Fold this protein.
Amino acid sequence: MELKTLTFIVVGATFALYIGIAIWSRAKSTGDFYVAGKGIHPVANGMATAADWMSAASFISMAGLIAFLGYGGSVFLMGWTGGYVLLAMLLAPYLRKFGKFTVPEFVGDRYYSQTARIVAVICLIVASVTYVIGQMRGIGVAFSRFMEVDFATGLFTGMGIVFIYAVLGGMKGITYTQIAQYCVLITAYTIPAIFISLNLTGNPIPQLALGSTMGDDTFLLDKLDLIVTDLGFREYSTASNGNMLNMFLYTFSLMIGTAGLPHVIIRFFTVPKVKDARYSAGWALVFIAILYTTAPAVGAMARLNLINTIQTGPVGSPEGNIQISDVPDWMTRWSTTGLLSWEDKNGDGRIQYYDEKGLGDKAAEYGWAGNEMTKVDRDIMVLANPEIANLPNWVIALVAAGGIAAALSTAAGLLLAIASAISHDLLKGVFRPDIDEKTELLASRIAMAFAIGVAAYFGLNPPGFAAQVVALAFGLAASSIFPVLMMGIFDKRANSTGAIAGMLSGLGVTLLYIFWFKGWFFIPGTNMAPNNADNWLLGISPEAFGAIGAMVNFGVAYVVSHATTPPPEHIQHLVEDIRVPRGAGTATDH
């Protein structure tokens, strides 16, 4: 069957499944809408949490970044998985025991301040909107290639599906939809990896194939190192990107940003007991590990297949580059999306692919006038990998459905977190505490619809690769939300004044750094050129600066808290009660 037709069938079937689940699990109360009635089984919640957490950045962009960065891409693996462990051990059980609906509600009650609650809402919205932009890019990339439509059409189609099942079902509908989406995305990720692993090494387990030998008895990573260095690129398995300080802070920012993500945290409010929160966290880690241990192999094999497809012989030899007349079909198809392009710069009828700086004078010896692969968007690597490897059309269609499922699942969780913050924390919690449940539920759905519209608007002009945009969101969560939660649980001396000052300062310095060095604004009269890595403070990238923002947040909150009036005695007792091991039974609201 033709690829386009098969893709429409597979993706259409998954959409029908998602909408059907939303209709079946329609939210009838605010409890259903916000926390699914607190009745989700730990294993089911673990699967839904994995889908919520593994976004388009995990499915589409992470392996693509690993493919091009090599060892340097390990920051995403270490940061995101380490952060989830941090969340599961230090935050989730205690927040579940507190028994509230949302993160801002916890902040408002713990710090006995409506102002703190409002500031937490602002932090949540800033981080979540930034995160959802990355999901929109993932949706647009998948749709633009496999549905053969433009980026905007794909984005609006995906958002329409999210609108139906998120607005209709709320957290209850999203939870069961995310379980289905996890099954789709993990199947779509592992099946192509198994096929390609078998083709390259004869080993069906991608994690083991990464260290296995190929047909010529050369280890896969050794082969890849040899090829990329021959083409002037840095050695794949050892080259890091940036200085070690930046790599450390990047990893740390992703880690604590993960632990501060509100759309993941609220998942632990959906289980019946504190004990269930711990179990669901463990199950989620198992489900997440399946994809995250496969990603390094997918990235390495994608890079190897890409180079072998274009660079078919030794560097500099007549057979070393493909003729433009023989360009593979997958390149032609992806070129229509604008995410892949090439140019015959020296007019020899062939395509050269190499690093101009790394190859140096050798390029001139071969008569080459520059790298002719003028654009290879890193976000296409996972989606294009099955086509590069000539896998069957049904596998390619499955990958399309998986990429879309990953983006939709996280987008739905983020949008619910935004809507809950607006309707429950601002409207119900601050401005209209007297509204009834029916009105609050209507307000939640209106807020969700508004959030979807804003997300679609910003998604049309994303500021980078999906994983880069998501990294910015993690930095914002790290600098604003994570410190206030940690101190709220583990420091009974932390007060409302300190929390507010900490959140505003951490978020403020991080936003300033990101906007300045991403080139989104420039102060006349300064010599600090925006968007230039040479001018980063101590070589720290905007994506890594969230760790610095978190330190500022912690420091300001601590100093201000200890310089001002201590929290009321009942709040200090509340903090101690949250940490007491008892409560493995039904959680209370205290």
The domain at 3-302+388-579 is CATH 1.20.1730.10 (Sodium/glucose cotransporter). Residues 522-529, 583-590 have pLDDT under 50 and may be disordered. The longest strand covers residues 340-341. Residues 59 and 257 are 19 Å apart (CA to CA).
